[in-house]
């Protein structure tokens, strides 16, 4: 009779361990799935934010008019820097039709070619879009919008970006709060 009781306790103990393991497996799987959803959702939202800021900036009449000025950078740089400060973007870069910078958060990069190789959709096809590329400040998520003149011709491009390292840090911070 005593031996039967010890088998029963052993069986109960095994069941408790099994149920506990299954619960932890379910919680771990749900945590992983939830974490993936948070990551993609935050990245998508930041991309939409960058694109929205780029479109608004590209349609700014003052910015568009500055493209016709003798020294466009002198007028465009303060506009871009103001937008960058107000939106919290890592950068607001404005380039001409050839991808030469009229505005950049690091003033010594003005007049140089934009980096990343992701301007074609905007400059050639006149589209607004979100891209991931490695620019002069590092890997970033960028919203890009063409700057068009009164006739609808593409005369430049606005690139608004957030560094991937900052996005990943925000995601990690959010995950840790959730867990």
Describe the structure.
By secondary structure, the protein is an alpha+beta fold. The chain contains five helices and five strands. Helix 1 runs antiparallel to helix 5.
Task: Tell me the series of helices and strands, N- to C-terminal.
Answer: HHHEEHEEEH
Give the structural class.
alpha+beta
Stretches where pLDDT is under 50 for at least 5 consecutive residues are none
Using the alpha-carbon principal axes, give the shape: elongated
Percent of residues in helices comes to: 40-55%
The largest sheet, given as strand count, sense and whether it forms a barrel, is:
5 strands, antiparallel
Determine the mean pLDDT: 90
What's the gist of this structure?
The chain has helices at residues 2-58, 61-66, 72-87, 120-123, 164-178; strands at residues 91-96, 101-103, 129-135, 138-148, 154-163. It has 179 residues and is an alpha+beta fold.
Give the topology.
Layout lengths: L1 H57 L2 H6 L5 H16 L3 E6 L4 E3 L16 H4 L5 E7 L2 E11 L5 E10 H15 L1
Antiparallel strand pairs: 1-2, 1-5, 3-4, 4-5
